[in-house]
Amino acid sequence: MAGAISDRATAVLQALEGAASVRVRDEMGPRFGIVTDKAMGVQMAAMQAIAKPLYPDHALAAALWETGWYEARMVACMVDDPALVTPEQMDAWRRDFDNWGIVDTVCAKLFDRVPYAFAKIDGWAGLNDEFGRRAAFALLACCAIHRRGGDADYRRGLALIEAHATDERNFVKKGVNWALRAIGLKGSSALQAAARETAARLAASADRTARWNGKDALRAFAKADGKSPTPPSPAKAGVQLGDA
Fold first, then answer.
1. pTM of the entire structure?
2. Cα–Cα nearest to 113, from 151, 140, 143, 87
3. How far apart (Å, rounded) are the C-alpha atoms in residues 117 and 168?
């Protein structure tokens, strides 16, 4: 069985290599801010096409993740079975997060469907590494967009947003903002009101980063209230899942 899984993982790597582009690889950092040590340069649509017929396959996902290749890990989160994902796996994969693209895609394609999602949000928000904390708020945003959990989960999430809204690191700041906007646009009417109240408090903050978070969210809410189109979901936004 182990040999068969290894052969299948090799076949996926070969398919990814066949879809790779030097231009795409070279643009990942300068254009999209996705910096990783091992990347082939495969577009999102090609990765999705490779992953689709393989779902669900928990063992294959684990083997692909272990390769360390960015594209293999993207496919891994698309083929894994959320019913088989353990809290230990979530923590292990989170420790490997090294760029915002993999953080957001794993959260949007897999982790938000795992029963332990909200427990991980609570725990990861307290981490001090940039991508670990980014993962907490990206996961909160994805859960809100896909309407997981209940109002109590998101009220805890709003408290976490307010607690970490002063974190000026780019990928954390944008993750916090994404989560606030997602709750305010996709939550129940009570949650939408609570998110707007949170945004208003942040907009009045003396801290520049908190103030930016609040004002940007308020602009998004005002746009939505004016019947403007809502932003695309993470799954449809290509490499720019959480606005980086």
1. 0.92
2. 143
3. 25
